[in-house]
Amino acid sequence: MLIYKHNDCLLKDNGFNHPERKERISSIIDSIKQIKDFKINLEDAPLADIDTISLVHPKKYIEKIFSNIPKEGLIGVEKEPYADTMLCSNSKNAILRSCGAGIAAVDALMNKNERVFCAIRPPGHHAETAKAMGFCFLNNVAVSARYLQNKYKLKKIAIIDFDVHHGNGTQEIFYNDETVAYASTHEHPLFPGTGSEEETGVGNIFNAQLKGGMECDEFLKLFDQKILRPIDKFKPEIILISAGFDAHKRDPIASINLESEDFYKITKNIVNLANIHSKGRVISFLEGGYDLLALSESIKHHLFALKV
């Protein structure tokens, strides 16, 4: 298994007591290095190039983000009360490495048939075509999907998002695109407030809202009915995962009660679907997950399911 990471992702600062902090990545990497049961190759993510990013995001939008990066201190890109998507002096390379990880992952998977996990930050699934929000600037999974279409001519791509927050950015980008299916489980009500089951795009959007306090058995039943079955019917050529681990019972900013080992079951069900329709092709992107112990444990279970 191949894992992309980069030290530039550790340099991005969001300020004191911010949940999206560098320790998320360092705890994940430490946890990965403890795995001895199968071989893991850790590689540095390249910088994404602007032309590839612009398959999703307008160049003017990209330039505006980078032009706002301060020489020191922090600048929030949103209006109150959600001014928590921060730029610091080290933001540019972290943003480009996070997006570049997915692009490199596509090439590795398509050329070497190797599943990939992108251990990166900032995350991406809240970033819309021309709007940064929810800690996200570039939509890493969306750029990778467009890159797959542009370079490898794939016609049917599925994105499965089990982050506890709805990936409003990914949904917005592909809302009228029948070539990309987007399926999301997310707690409701919770930020960003999108993702009702009536939001169906052109029949390619599948949302499943979770009630606070939900346990694993109920989650897996809902996941099968409202996520896996529609994607099974879609028959994707590849599955991309927006892997958020904030539906864990320990997570401080949500209230779903999954255990660390439950992420093995969730991931294994996705892999089984990929084995049927997609030649086993899966790329996973880190999104949320803000309790360090829960994150480091859950990642291990996620990777064990991906390796098979």
Can you offer a commentary on this structure?
- The structure is a single chain.
- The chain is α/β, with parallel strands linked by helices.
- The protein has one domain (2-307): Arginase, Chain A (3-Layer(aba) Sandwich), CATH 3.40.800.
- The chain has helices spanning 8-11, 23-33, 50-53, 59-67, 91-112, 140-152, 168-174, 216-234, 262-277, 292-307; strands at 2-5, 41-44, 75-76, 86-87, 116-118, 157-161, 180-187, 205-210, 238-243, 282-286.
- The strands form 2 sheets. The chain has an 8-stranded parallel β-sheet with strand order 2-1-5-10-9-6-7-8, with helices on both faces. Strands 3-4 form a two-stranded antiparallel ribbon.
- α2 (23-33) packs across α10.
- The longest helix has 22 residues, at 91-112.
